[in-house]
Backbone:
């Protein structure tokens, strides 16, 4: 391993979550080493064993015995890819961090392309699996997810499910990932004001092991997407969201009430048994509750942001 003699810093960290990938981890390690040894950069490879139940950890230990640049983070059980990436980010030393899957479907030969874009001035470079080697149903679901994300989040990233990405360390230092939020890391980085782009990368067919993709991830992905939308748009000013909804509901309720008042006192009609009367009262009550909820959320938001950043400075001259 070559060390930066000027600053004594690690140049690149490679983050690789692995869950039941006993047939792939040795091969991906060899492929990455072959690519990285040609770059004349100091680097480390961090494997996160996400609670594997096969021989993944044993194979990783054998790799570690041969190569000191390899670091292994072992989870007590399977916590998911988001948790694995979060742990990898927090334990990395590189100025640039590259994440990729351990299933051999990401091609390490694309790493230099990602790093080249970083040198062009971008803070995050996302891989775009332009020609995917996946089943039709997975590609169909991904297309639907992309359309939904484009409407809700508008991050302009074609392939949020591709783990192959490169990051400058400063753009992920303050990220705390939960759930299945790894798909929306680019959106969170864009929200913080960093520059994000994407490049087309190779996508290889899976040879060993089984895909961890299942239908439950669709529901989780939609829910996490809504959380990201709220967080990036309203986390520092939740009153803008809840207050707007509350005022709208209250206004509709008041208008219905005025209409019923007109019927009662101008046209002399009975309104006591009209469903509109109950609807008017319900809307005004819900509107009031939403405004109060917005105020409480605002207080909680200010307590949260008291000791954390909600703005990010690019430079000071």
Residues:
């Amino acid at each position: 391993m070559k060390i930066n003699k000027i600053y004594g810093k690690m140049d690149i960290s490679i983050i690789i979550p692995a869950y039941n990938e006993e047939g792939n981890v040795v091969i991906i390690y060899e492929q990455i080493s072959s690519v990285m040894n040609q770059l004349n950069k100091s680097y480390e490879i961090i494997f996160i064993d996400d609670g594997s139940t096969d021989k993944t950890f044993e194979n990783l230990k054998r790799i570690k015995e041969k190569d000191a640049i390899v670091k292994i983070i072992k989870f007590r059980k399977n916590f998911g890819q988001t948790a694995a990436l979060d742990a990898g980010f927090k334990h990395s030393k590189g100025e640039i961090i590259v994440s990729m899957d351990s299933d051999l479907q990401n091609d390490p030969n694309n790493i230099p392309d990602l790093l080249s874009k970083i040198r062009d001035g971008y803070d995050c470079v996302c891989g775009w699996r332009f020609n995917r080697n996946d089943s039709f149903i997975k590609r169909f679901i991904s297309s639907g997810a992309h359309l939904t994300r484009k409407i809700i989040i508008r991050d302009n990233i074609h392939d949020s499910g591709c783990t192959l990405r490169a990051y400058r360390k400063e753009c992920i230092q303050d990220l705390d990932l939960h759930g299945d939020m790894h798909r929306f890391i680019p959106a969170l980085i864009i929200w913080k004001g960093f520059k994000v782009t994407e490049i087309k990368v190779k996508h290889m067919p899976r040879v060993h092991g089984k895909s961890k993709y299942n239908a439950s991830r669709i529901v989780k992905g939609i829910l996490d997407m809504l959380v990201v939308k709220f967080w990036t748009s309203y986390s520092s000013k939740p009153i803008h969201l809840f207050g707007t909804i509350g005022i709208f509901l209250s206004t509709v309720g008041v208008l219905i009430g005025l209409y019923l008042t007109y019927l009662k006192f101008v046209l002399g009609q009975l309104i006591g048994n009209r469903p509109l009367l109950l609807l008017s009262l319900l809307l005004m009550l819900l509107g009031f509750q939403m405004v109060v909820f917005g105020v409480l959320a605002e207080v909680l938001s200010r307590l949260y942001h008291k000791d954390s950043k909600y703005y990010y400075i690019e430079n000071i001259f």
